[in-house]
Specification:
Elements: H1 3-19, H2 22-27, E1 35-41, E2 50-51, E3 54-55, E4 57-61, E5 64-70, E6 78-84, E7 87-93, E8 100-103, H3 115-132, E9 153-155, E10 160-163, E11 166-167, E12 174-176, E13 183-185, E14 190-198, E15 202-210, E16 213-223, E17 230-231, E18 236-240, E19 251-257, E20 260-262
Parallel strand pairs: 8-10
Antiparallel strand pairs: 1-5, 2-3, 4-5, 6-7, 9-12, 10-11, 12-19, 13-18, 14-15, 14-17, 15-16, 16-18, 16-19, 19-20
Length: about 270
Protein backbone atom coordinates (compact mmCIF):
# COMPACT_ATOMS: atom_id res chain seq x y z
CA UNK A 1 0.00 0.00 0.00
CA UNK A 2 1.44 3.43 -0.88
CA UNK A 3 2.72 5.37 2.12
CA UNK A 4 0.17 8.19 1.58
CA UNK A 5 -2.79 5.80 1.59
CA UNK A 6 -1.46 3.97 4.64
CA UNK A 7 -1.09 7.26 6.51
CA UNK A 8 -4.59 8.34 5.48
CA UNK A 9 -6.07 5.04 6.65
CA UNK A 10 -4.29 5.32 10.00
CA UNK A 11 -5.58 8.89 10.43
CA UNK A 12 -9.15 7.84 9.65
CA UNK A 13 -8.98 4.96 12.10
CA UNK A 14 -7.57 7.24 14.80
CA UNK A 15 -10.25 9.88 14.30
CA UNK A 16 -12.96 7.24 14.24
CA UNK A 17 -11.67 5.74 17.47
CA UNK A 18 -11.84 9.16 19.10
CA UNK A 19 -15.33 9.88 17.80
CA UNK A 20 -16.64 6.47 18.93
CA UNK A 21 -14.67 6.02 22.15
CA UNK A 22 -15.72 3.60 24.86
CA UNK A 23 -16.72 6.40 27.22
CA UNK A 24 -18.58 8.22 24.45
CA UNK A 25 -20.62 5.13 23.57
CA UNK A 26 -21.61 4.55 27.19
CA UNK A 27 -22.16 8.07 28.52
CA UNK A 28 -22.95 10.36 25.59
CA UNK A 29 -26.63 11.19 26.10
CA UNK A 30 -26.85 14.89 25.17
CA UNK A 31 -30.40 15.74 26.23
CA UNK A 32 -31.66 18.07 28.97
CA UNK A 33 -30.60 16.36 32.19
CA UNK A 34 -28.13 14.17 30.31
CA UNK A 35 -24.42 14.11 29.52
CA UNK A 36 -22.48 15.27 26.47
CA UNK A 37 -19.04 13.76 25.81
CA UNK A 38 -16.88 16.17 23.80
CA UNK A 39 -13.56 15.15 22.22
CA UNK A 40 -10.73 17.48 23.25
CA UNK A 41 -8.03 15.70 21.25
CA UNK A 42 -4.63 14.54 22.44
CA UNK A 43 -2.25 16.65 24.51
CA UNK A 44 0.68 16.10 26.85
CA UNK A 45 -1.09 17.87 29.71
CA UNK A 46 -4.73 17.67 30.68
CA UNK A 47 -6.63 20.47 28.93
CA UNK A 48 -9.18 22.60 30.74
CA UNK A 49 -12.72 23.08 29.51
CA UNK A 50 -15.75 25.10 30.55
CA UNK A 51 -19.46 25.12 29.75
CA UNK A 52 -21.69 28.10 30.49
CA UNK A 53 -18.77 29.63 32.37
CA UNK A 54 -18.28 26.65 34.70
CA UNK A 55 -15.35 24.20 34.68
CA UNK A 56 -16.00 20.76 33.24
CA UNK A 57 -14.79 17.29 34.19
CA UNK A 58 -11.99 16.13 31.85
CA UNK A 59 -10.80 12.52 31.69
CA UNK A 60 -8.24 10.67 29.62
CA UNK A 61 -9.09 7.62 27.54
CA UNK A 62 -5.98 6.00 26.08
CA UNK A 63 -4.20 9.00 24.48
CA UNK A 64 -7.28 11.18 24.13
CA UNK A 65 -8.90 13.73 26.42
CA UNK A 66 -12.68 13.90 26.80
CA UNK A 67 -14.89 16.54 28.42
CA UNK A 68 -17.79 15.02 30.37
CA UNK A 69 -20.40 17.78 30.31
CA UNK A 70 -23.54 17.90 32.41
CA UNK A 71 -26.49 19.32 30.45
CA UNK A 72 -28.96 21.22 32.68
CA UNK A 73 -32.63 20.29 32.58
CA UNK A 74 -33.38 23.89 31.57
CA UNK A 75 -31.33 23.78 28.35
CA UNK A 76 -33.36 23.90 25.15
CA UNK A 77 -32.64 21.39 22.36
CA UNK A 78 -30.20 22.68 19.76
CA UNK A 79 -26.60 23.76 19.36
CA UNK A 80 -24.40 24.13 22.46
CA UNK A 81 -20.65 24.54 22.89
CA UNK A 82 -17.82 24.32 25.38
CA UNK A 83 -14.59 26.35 25.52
CA UNK A 84 -11.18 24.71 25.76
CA UNK A 85 -7.76 26.24 25.15
CA UNK A 86 -9.13 29.10 23.09
CA UNK A 87 -11.27 26.76 21.00
CA UNK A 88 -15.04 26.52 20.78
CA UNK A 89 -16.22 22.93 20.47
CA UNK A 90 -19.83 22.28 19.61
CA UNK A 91 -22.33 19.57 20.43
CA UNK A 92 -26.05 19.18 19.84
CA UNK A 93 -28.64 18.71 22.56
CA UNK A 94 -31.58 16.54 21.59
CA UNK A 95 -35.08 16.63 23.03
CA UNK A 96 -36.49 14.49 25.81
CA UNK A 97 -39.95 14.48 27.32
CA UNK A 98 -40.22 13.66 31.01
CA UNK A 99 -43.39 12.35 32.68
CA UNK A 100 -45.47 14.14 35.32
CA UNK A 101 -45.99 13.29 38.98
CA UNK A 102 -48.66 14.72 41.28
CA UNK A 103 -48.01 14.70 45.02
CA UNK A 104 -50.31 15.71 47.88
CA UNK A 105 -48.72 17.11 51.04
CA UNK A 106 -50.61 17.68 54.29
CA UNK A 107 -48.07 20.28 55.43
CA UNK A 108 -48.89 23.24 53.18
CA UNK A 109 -45.74 25.04 54.39
CA UNK A 110 -43.82 22.55 52.25
CA UNK A 111 -45.68 23.89 49.20
CA UNK A 112 -46.08 27.60 49.98
CA UNK A 113 -43.68 28.51 52.81
CA UNK A 114 -44.24 31.63 54.93
CA UNK A 115 -41.76 34.52 55.02
CA UNK A 116 -39.69 33.10 57.90
CA UNK A 117 -39.29 29.79 56.13
CA UNK A 118 -38.54 31.52 52.83
CA UNK A 119 -35.61 33.31 54.49
CA UNK A 120 -34.36 29.98 55.82
CA UNK A 121 -34.75 28.37 52.39
CA UNK A 122 -32.78 31.20 50.76
CA UNK A 123 -29.87 30.75 53.20
CA UNK A 124 -29.86 27.00 52.76
CA UNK A 125 -30.04 27.24 48.98
CA UNK A 126 -26.90 29.40 48.91
CA UNK A 127 -25.01 26.75 50.92
CA UNK A 128 -26.11 23.96 48.62
CA UNK A 129 -25.37 25.88 45.42
CA UNK A 130 -21.83 26.48 46.69
CA UNK A 131 -21.44 22.73 47.29
CA UNK A 132 -22.70 21.86 43.81
CA UNK A 133 -20.17 24.32 42.35
CA UNK A 134 -17.22 22.71 44.13
CA UNK A 135 -14.51 21.85 41.62
CA UNK A 136 -11.59 19.95 43.15
CA UNK A 137 -8.57 19.01 41.00
CA UNK A 138 -8.85 15.31 41.80
CA UNK A 139 -9.90 13.15 38.87
CA UNK A 140 -12.53 10.50 39.70
CA UNK A 141 -11.00 7.01 39.82
CA UNK A 142 -13.64 6.01 37.27
CA UNK A 143 -17.09 7.12 36.15
CA UNK A 144 -19.00 4.07 37.34
CA UNK A 145 -21.43 4.78 40.17
CA UNK A 146 -22.98 2.11 42.37
CA UNK A 147 -26.53 2.37 43.68
CA UNK A 148 -26.45 3.90 47.17
CA UNK A 149 -29.14 1.43 48.27
CA UNK A 150 -30.68 -1.73 46.86
CA UNK A 151 -34.36 -1.25 46.22
CA UNK A 152 -36.96 -0.33 43.60
CA UNK A 153 -37.24 3.16 42.14
CA UNK A 154 -40.23 5.15 43.33
CA UNK A 155 -39.52 8.26 41.23
CA UNK A 156 -37.26 8.73 38.24
CA UNK A 157 -35.10 11.69 37.28
CA UNK A 158 -36.60 14.69 35.46
CA UNK A 159 -40.22 14.07 36.42
CA UNK A 160 -42.29 17.27 36.30
CA UNK A 161 -43.71 17.56 39.79
CA UNK A 162 -46.93 19.10 41.03
CA UNK A 163 -47.38 19.55 44.79
CA UNK A 164 -51.01 20.01 45.81
CA UNK A 165 -51.74 20.89 42.19
CA UNK A 166 -48.99 23.54 41.91
CA UNK A 167 -46.05 23.02 39.54
CA UNK A 168 -42.60 23.05 41.15
CA UNK A 169 -39.06 22.24 39.99
CA UNK A 170 -38.56 18.95 38.13
CA UNK A 171 -37.29 15.99 40.13
CA UNK A 172 -33.52 16.35 40.11
CA UNK A 173 -32.53 12.84 41.18
CA UNK A 174 -33.65 9.28 41.76
CA UNK A 175 -35.88 8.12 44.63
CA UNK A 176 -35.52 4.58 45.98
CA UNK A 177 -38.37 3.01 47.97
CA UNK A 178 -36.54 1.45 50.91
CA UNK A 179 -37.39 1.21 54.63
CA UNK A 180 -36.33 3.80 57.18
CA UNK A 181 -32.96 2.97 58.70
CA UNK A 182 -31.54 1.37 55.55
CA UNK A 183 -27.81 2.22 55.26
CA UNK A 184 -26.94 4.64 52.43
CA UNK A 185 -23.57 3.96 50.78
CA UNK A 186 -21.52 6.38 48.73
CA UNK A 187 -21.60 5.30 45.04
CA UNK A 188 -17.90 6.09 44.54
CA UNK A 189 -14.91 7.33 46.51
CA UNK A 190 -15.02 10.98 47.50
CA UNK A 191 -14.83 13.68 50.14
CA UNK A 192 -17.71 14.95 52.28
CA UNK A 193 -18.04 18.66 51.49
CA UNK A 194 -21.34 19.60 53.14
CA UNK A 195 -23.83 18.25 55.64
CA UNK A 196 -26.96 19.97 56.90
CA UNK A 197 -30.57 19.75 57.98
CA UNK A 198 -32.53 21.68 55.35
CA UNK A 199 -36.15 22.77 55.01
CA UNK A 200 -36.89 20.84 51.82
CA UNK A 201 -34.14 18.19 51.81
CA UNK A 202 -34.01 17.34 55.51
CA UNK A 203 -30.77 15.69 56.64
CA UNK A 204 -28.42 16.00 53.68
CA UNK A 205 -24.89 14.94 52.68
CA UNK A 206 -22.83 16.15 49.70
CA UNK A 207 -19.88 14.04 48.47
CA UNK A 208 -17.32 15.34 45.96
CA UNK A 209 -16.04 12.60 43.64
CA UNK A 210 -13.68 15.04 41.89
CA UNK A 211 -13.79 17.78 39.23
CA UNK A 212 -17.36 18.86 39.85
CA UNK A 213 -18.72 15.28 39.93
CA UNK A 214 -20.97 15.50 43.02
CA UNK A 215 -23.42 13.18 44.78
CA UNK A 216 -26.10 14.46 47.14
CA UNK A 217 -28.23 12.31 49.48
CA UNK A 218 -31.17 13.71 51.43
CA UNK A 219 -34.25 13.03 53.60
CA UNK A 220 -31.95 10.95 55.81
CA UNK A 221 -32.90 9.90 59.35
CA UNK A 222 -29.25 9.93 60.45
CA UNK A 223 -25.94 11.28 59.13
CA UNK A 224 -22.87 9.14 59.88
CA UNK A 225 -20.10 11.27 58.33
CA UNK A 226 -18.38 14.60 58.93
CA UNK A 227 -17.31 17.41 56.60
CA UNK A 228 -13.81 16.77 55.29
CA UNK A 229 -14.03 13.01 55.71
CA UNK A 230 -12.55 10.95 52.88
CA UNK A 231 -14.79 8.05 51.89
CA UNK A 232 -14.02 4.84 50.06
CA UNK A 233 -16.55 3.47 47.58
CA UNK A 234 -19.35 1.83 49.51
CA UNK A 235 -18.78 3.69 52.79
CA UNK A 236 -21.96 4.33 54.78
CA UNK A 237 -22.92 8.03 54.84
CA UNK A 238 -26.13 7.69 56.83
CA UNK A 239 -29.53 6.03 57.02
CA UNK A 240 -32.76 6.38 55.06
CA UNK A 241 -35.48 8.56 56.55
CA UNK A 242 -38.31 10.97 55.76
CA UNK A 243 -36.94 14.33 56.90
CA UNK A 244 -37.70 17.53 54.99
CA UNK A 245 -40.33 17.52 52.23
CA UNK A 246 -41.14 13.82 52.06
CA UNK A 247 -44.34 11.79 52.09
CA UNK A 248 -42.58 8.78 53.61
CA UNK A 249 -39.20 7.07 54.02
CA UNK A 250 -37.14 6.93 50.85
CA UNK A 251 -33.62 7.62 49.60
CA UNK A 252 -33.17 10.58 47.27
CA UNK A 253 -29.91 10.76 45.31
CA UNK A 254 -28.72 13.60 43.07
CA UNK A 255 -25.74 13.55 40.73
CA UNK A 256 -24.28 16.83 39.47
CA UNK A 257 -21.71 17.68 36.80
CA UNK A 258 -20.50 21.28 36.39
CA UNK A 259 -23.41 22.39 38.61
CA UNK A 260 -25.96 20.67 36.37
CA UNK A 261 -28.18 17.99 37.85
CA UNK A 262 -28.04 14.95 35.58
CA UNK A 263 -29.69 11.54 35.55
CA UNK A 264 -27.76 9.24 37.93
CA UNK A 265 -28.99 6.23 35.95
CA UNK A 266 -26.52 7.18 33.19
CA UNK A 267 -23.63 6.22 35.46
CA UNK A 268 -25.10 3.16 37.21
CA UNK A 269 -23.44 0.05 35.85
CA UNK A 270 -22.25 1.91 32.76
CA UNK A 271 -18.81 0.30 32.77
CA UNK A 272 -19.67 -3.17 34.01
CA UNK A 273 -19.17 -6.03 31.51
Amino acid sequence: MPRFLASLLLLCLTLNAHADSYITRLLNKPVPGGVAVVDLGSAAQAPKASYQGKPVLVVKEQNNWLAIVGVPLTVKPGAQSISSGGRTLGFTVGSKKYPEQRITLKNTQQVNPDQDNLKRIERELAEQIAAYRTFSPNTPSNLLLDKPVNGPLSSKFGVRRYFNGEERNPHSGLDFAVPAGTPIKTPAAGKVILIGNYFFNGNTVFVDHGQGFISMFCHMSKIDVKVGQQLARGAVVGKVGATGRATGPHMHWNVSLNDARVDPAIFIGAFQP
